[in-house]
């Protein structure tokens, strides 16, 4: 019984990761198939408390936007609801970042900046090295798009992002600037 639960949890996580990869690569037909399989698993195995369901919801929200099921305003509203309901979740920084992107798409730059700035302290605990990068890049883009007088500082902020240098594929895209 325990092995069966572990199997279904592993399968659930694998489907979520696969859905994420298909979304990143904009393979929407494969994403749709994987999303359907994930939804079926949640229905058939509704007696299992699957981990990190907020990631499934995050992926579903993104899929609905990319597949033109929802517009940017509805997507923003969905992310706001998810963001508010996951304040104690480890994945809240990721969700906040996605929420801020959709705020920017809806010209709500001040709120997007606030959401991102609220998450900067949380990125100090970022063991994966991706959330800190995501928040800082999105913050720089937000400031660049919203503040025409200070775009140079936004560009400097992008240059200052410390990408995951431990990764074997790491190569700086731009030479370091001495400013």
Characterise this structure:
It is a single chain. The chain is mainly alpha-helical and 179 residues long. The protein is built from eight helices and no strands. It has helices at residues 2-24, 28-44, 53-66, 72-85, 92-105, 109-119, 131-146, 151-160. Helix 1 packs parallel to helix 3 (53-66), helix 5 packs antiparallel against helix 6 (109-119) and helix 7 packs antiparallel against helix 8. The chain is elongated, with a radius of gyration of 18 Å. The protein starts with a helix and ends in a 19-residue tail after the last helix. The mean pLDDT is 84.
Compile the SSE list and pairings.
Blueprint lengths: L1 H23 L3 H17 L8 H14 L5 H14 L6 H14 L3 H11 L11 H16 L4 H10 L19
Helix pairs in contact: 1-2, 1-3, 2-3, 3-4, 4-5, 5-6, 5-7, 6-7, 7-8
Q: Outline of this structure?
A:
The protein is mainly alpha-helical and 179 residues long. 66% of the residues lie in helices and 0% in strands.
Structure characteristics:
single chain; 8 helices; mainly alpha; 179 residues; elongated
């Amino acid at each position: 019984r325990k092995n069966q639960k572990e199997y279904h949890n592993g399968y659930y996580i694998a489907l979520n990761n696969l859905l994420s990869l298909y979304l990143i690569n904009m393979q929407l037909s494969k994403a749709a198939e994987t999303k359907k399989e994930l939804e079926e698993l949640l229905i058939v195995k509704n007696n299992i408390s699957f981990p990190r369901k907020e990631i499934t919801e995050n992926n579903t929200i993104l899929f609905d936007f990319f597949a033109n099921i929802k517009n940017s305003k509805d997507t923003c509203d969905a992310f706001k609801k998810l963001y508010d309901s996951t304040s104690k979740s480890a994945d809240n920084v990721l969700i906040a970042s996605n929420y801020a992107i959709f705020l920017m798409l809806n010209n709500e730059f001040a709120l997007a900046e606030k959401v991102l700035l609220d998450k900067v302290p949380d990125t100090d605990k970022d063991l994966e090295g991706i959330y800190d990068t995501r928040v800082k890049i999105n913050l720089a883009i937000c400031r660049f798009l919203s503040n025409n007088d200070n775009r140079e500082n936004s560009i400097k902020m992008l240059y200052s992002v410390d990408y995951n240098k431990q990764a074997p594929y790491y190569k700086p895209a731009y030479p370091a600037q001495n400013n």
